[in-house]
Amino acid sequence: MKELTKIKPQKGLIGVNLKELYRYRELLFTLTMRDIKVRYKQTVIGGIWAVLQPFLTMVVFTLFFGKVVKIPSEGIPYALFSYSGLLLWTYFANSVTKASNSLISNTNLISKIYFPRLLIPLSSTMVGLLDYLIAFILVFGMMIYYRFLPPLTILLVPVILFFTWMFAAGLSFWLSAINVKYRDVRYVVPFFVQLLLFMTPVIYPVSIAGKYRWLLMLNPMTGFIEAHRAMLIGHQPINYGMVGISISITVALFIGGLVYFRSVERYFADII
Predict the structure, then answer these.
(1) CA angle at residue 36 from 86 to 33, to 5 degrees?
(2) What does DSSP assign to residue 66?
(3) Residue 253 CB contacts under 8 Å (≥ 6 apart), including other chains
(4) Which of 77, 80, 177, 168 is nearest to 131 (CA)?
(5) What single-letter DSSP state applies at residue 10?
(6) What are the Cα distances from residue 247, in Å, to 23, 39, 240, 262?
(7) Which of 60, 125, 220, 257 qualifies as a cystine partner to 246, CB 3.0-4.6 A?
(8) pLDDT (tens digit, 9 = 90+) per residue, 47-67?
(9) CB neighbours of 48 closer than 8 A, spacing ≥ 6?
(10) Radius of gyration of the chain from Cα atoms?
(11) Within a 13 Å sphere around the CA of 211, how many CA atoms are in the beta-carbon half?
(12) Cβ atoms within 10 Å of 167's Cβ, excluding its own
């Protein structure tokens, strides 16, 4: 007689079994590498696309917002100002867009075998980290061109990148889980991300918002983009108060996403 294995939902406040996630760490790595390979499979220039996306966007923004509209850039060249923001924003936007549809894209895996479903949106948010690192190289080239010396605060960039990943992952837990039942999410997310770009100080400084600055601060990416830019360029002090607000909202969203994801995870295989 074969032994019967019964899979039950995890107990606890958020129902996340860290030991189980650690045990499946190789699967997380495999899923991430698979997505990276698929991303650049049969492309002519491969990983260069990781640089071209933020770079070409920066060129367009510089020509229109920097030259025509003449948006202030806090005393630094607008190209460097916008690229330092687009670098982090591109990672966030691509991660959320891809991860929100990740469960639907892996229907065959979910319906056939058991593994922690959290690994799927998590792997999707980790794919963009490689793109970020590749595109990051261009920052040094721009600093050389504009004669900027990287400040010591550049060593703090991984901290901001980590919390940006946490924000993207938290949103992805919510969106990917909801998308299983309501497929409208795949159409809403790209529009939402595009709209959020103009509510984030990527192409303009947060100071331009004046008395409505507090509205921008409700968006965690505001604090992260501002801190990311300050850490890279060193043109102004890091606003730790703004970063603290962004981190607080991010942690709450991340935990809330985990709770919701785990509460509906057991139904994925039945309705996906």
Answers:
(1) 130
(2) I
(3) 167, 170, 171, 174, 220
(4) 168
(5) P
(6) 28, 30, 10, 22
(7) 220
(8) 787 888 889 999 999 999 988
(9) none
(10) 20
(11) 0
(12) 26
Task: Give the length of the chain.
Answer: 272
Gap between the Cα atoms of 250 and 255, Å rounded: 9
Comparing 108-112, 179-183, 219-223, 253-257, the range with the smallest average pLDDT is 108-112
Determine the residue type at 209. A
Contact 130, 68 (CB under 8 A): no
Q: Please state, in angstroms and as integers, the Cα–Cα distance from residue 179 to each residue in 15, 105, 114, 222, 264, following that order.
A: 21, 11, 20, 26, 12
The secondary structure of residue 155, as a DSSP letter, is G
As to burial, measured by CB atoms within 10 angstroms (0-12 exposed, 13-18 middle, 19+ buried), residue 19 is: exposed
* Eight-class DSSP state of 4: P
Instruction: Dump pLDDT digits (tens) for 186-236.
Output: 899 999 999 999 999 999 999 888 888 888 889 999 999 999 999 999 888
Which pLDDT score, from 0 to 100, does residue 108 have?
84
Amino acid at 227: A
> What would the two tokens of residue 61 be?
């923004």
- What does pLDDT average to over the chain? 88
